[in-house]
Amino acid sequence: MRKIRATYLAAATACIAILAAATLPAAAQEIQQLPVTPLNIGIHVIKAEVARSEEQREQGLMFRKKMGANEGMVFVFETPAGICMWMKNTLIPLSVAFIDAKGAILNVEEMKAQTLDSHCAQGAASYALEMNKGWFKDKNIKPGTVIQGLPQL
C-alpha cells in the first residue's frame, strides 16, 4: 500500500510541475538574452540590456532573481508617451527613471517586487531605465539629469 501511495504521490507531483510550467509564459521558462549597451550618467557607467520590441518590453526583468550593482534594463519606446510600468512577476525591487527623447530624466519611481501598482512618467517619455531599487537615490541622480548612450529611437 505504501508503494502505491508513493507512486501516486510521485505522479501527482509530476503532473503539478507540468501544469505549472504550462501556465507560465514562454518568456518565464527561458529568460531571453537581450543586446547590451553602456549608458553614462555623469561618472556612472551602466551595463544596460536593451528592450526594444513589444515582446522584450513585456518580459522586461520578470523572473530574474538578481541583477548586478551597475546593471539595468533600458526600455525603448518609438513614440514619446506617458508610459507606465508595473512589477508583475518581477522578483527584485526596482527603481525606474522615465527619460525624454533628449535623454533627460523626467522622474524616478521606486517599485516593489511582484505588484500590479502603476508607476508612470510625468511627461512624454521615450525611454525607461530600470535599476536595482535605490540606485538613483544612492547616486544622487535626479530629474533633469541627462543620460548619454541611449539607443537611437
TrEMBL record:
<feature type="signal peptide">
    <location>
        <begin position="1"/>
        <end position="28"/>
    </location>
</feature>
<protein>
    <recommendedName>
        <fullName>DUF192 domain-containing protein</fullName>
    </recommendedName>
</protein>
<dbReference type="InterPro" id="IPR038695">
    <property type="entry name" value="Saro_0823-like_sf"/>
</dbReference>
<dbReference type="InterPro" id="IPR003795">
    <property type="entry name" value="DUF192"/>
</dbReference>
<keyword id="KW-0732">Signal</keyword>
<dbReference type="Pfam" id="PF02643">
    <property type="entry name" value="DUF192"/>
</dbReference>
